[in-house]
Amino acid sequence: MRLFTITVLFLMLCQCDLSGQVARHTFALGERDFLLDGKPFQIIAGEMHFARIPRPYWRHRLQMAKAMGLNTIATYVFWNFHEPLPGKFGFSTENHDIASFIRMAKEEGLWVIVRPGPYACAEWEFGGFPWWLLKEKDLLVRSKDPRFLKACERYIKALGDEIAPLQVTKGGPILMVQVENEYGSYSDDKEFMGKTRDMIVSAGIDVPLFTADGPYQCKAGYLPGVLPAINGEENAKSLRDTVKKYNDGKGPYFIPEFYPGWLDSWGEKHNIVPVQSFLGKYDSLLTEGVSVSLYMFHGGTTFGFMNGANYNKEHPILPQPSTYDYDAPLDEAGRPTPKFMAMREVIAKHLSPSVRMPDVPPANKIIAVPAFKLSEVTNLYALLGKPMISDTLLSMEDLNQGYGYILYRTTVKNPAKGLLKIDGLRDYALVYVNKTRVAVLDRRLGQDSVEVTINTANSTLDIFVENLGRINYGKRITDNRKGITGSAWLAGEELHRWSIYSLPLDHMGYEQFAGKVLDGVPVLRRGHFLLEETGDTFLDMRPWGKGCVWINGHNIGRYWYIGPQQTLYVPAPWLRKGNNEIAIFEQLKSAQDSIEGLATPILDQLRNP
């Protein structure tokens, strides 16, 4: 028996060694082409973010990518998703398990490109940076600030432990890794970029590295010795000219972001990119042998409070909605669109005759949920815990809070009439005098002040502030503290002596639903509904005002009546046969108490504020 056991173990070890040798490949940068095992290889890729897809759906989405003809999946890694608190890493649970996602891609016959940042953008909160970097007011992200670099190095090392064994050089599917992201749109510090590259290499990454910038930003963002790849390029000749200019006169030629869709912002028209506007260009690039990755192939959903924000000349902040449908070939619920089918036909023309394109997997079931009531309710004031007492206003970061809401309270001793001015309102505030709402202020619209009349002595002034998501792109990424970052003034006098209440709403552990409804005061409602079968559904939020929703403990995102998003996607794996629980934090319409699930999303309806 002992001899038999030893023999079996020996054969198993031999098999593992041989399979390891068979599985290993080489991937290199040729003069013109990428070289897989020494032969030209065209990357036909699409981007999806594992953080934006419920883990039980990872395999289905990967199979959809394979069925469209893709051979590679690109994914960002969001630093704040994996290190929510300094030194507290999460890589092994649910959606955080990047190694399992990569192994699953290999099982489905897909190569992988990893984009670890540390900066990602991606319409993700703070561009992927952890909020706690902002606790030190003078720390500068995307710079050689030693405190920033130290934190980056810790993150990259931890990530390297997860992904380095999955590189193509070690039998895994990872072909390439990106250094930083679109740095040329931000600055041109080659020393900083070099330090970022060195961190990645020190973390055990030995596959080819690349940078990603627009054609005009490449000069500032490229790094000598690292392949410059060009986002948004649509012409093969222009692409080659740009890459040769910054890569010693040679290729290969890669577009990490080719856009078949585009992002949305709250209060702005839903973006549609017609397939006819880009399909011919995509076909031409593939014909020219260019390697291309679609941004996005499948967008998914930005669950919880992890949406980012942009800004422009008209709006100091433009937060993004929870849907990341992106008008992508695969929609938010993972269903193939007409765009998917059109691109599948184009890609099929460029595949080797020996490659068989799989059939398109069936879409997941969609269900409607009949309207039901949320019978339990409590109000904002019943949710407040113990306050921090401060003579001056403090930001969320000062209170060790990353996301959610915060309430500032002070007592106005004497009757007053005049302008209430809030310096540094970040980002959306409900103003109350003695629990009566007197104003709604929206940083998106440049609102930070309102005329207020206080008729009685010792009145309570409350300012309830929502963090709408930190800016993820541009120079203002360094100015991202939330709550109120300045001071508040009433009739020309600065207000002091504040009671400050954190309300991160990071879980649904609030068991007391005994509070009554107060007109105009935010409420937390809870209800239950029964399902005979599960399936994806879309909560109809049109009757509601503004807030966020939890299904069976999962924060599925924000809603806001202004649109364009009017439904919230609920994935079937987060539902269950039988009893289900829903909780809704509603800021504006305290009397609303019913909801239903639709079989079709509504992502394109705007309403006036």
Protein architecture, described:
An eight-stranded parallel beta sheet has the order 9-8-7-6-5-4-11-10. It has a six-stranded antiparallel beta sheet with strand order 16-27-17-23-20-21, with no helix packed on it. It has eleven helices and 34 strands. It is of the alpha+beta class and 609 residues long. It has three domains: 41-349, Alpha-Beta Barrel (TIM Barrel), CATH 3.20.20.80; 369-378 and 508-598, Galactose-binding domain-like (Jelly Rolls, Sandwich), CATH 2.60.120.260; 392-496, Jelly Rolls. Helix 5 (146-163) runs parallel beside helix 6 (190-202) and helix 9 packs parallel to helix 10. 19% of the residues lie in helices and 27% in strands. Mean pLDDT is 95; it is low at 1-22.
What count of helical segments does DSSP give?
11
Q: Please estimate the helix content.
A: 10-25%
Number of beta-strand segments = 34
Computed over alpha carbons, the radius of gyration is 26 Å
Give the number of domains: 3
Low-confidence stretches: 1-22
- Overall pLDDT level: 95
CATH architecture of the largest domain: Alpha-Beta Barrel
Structural class: alpha+beta
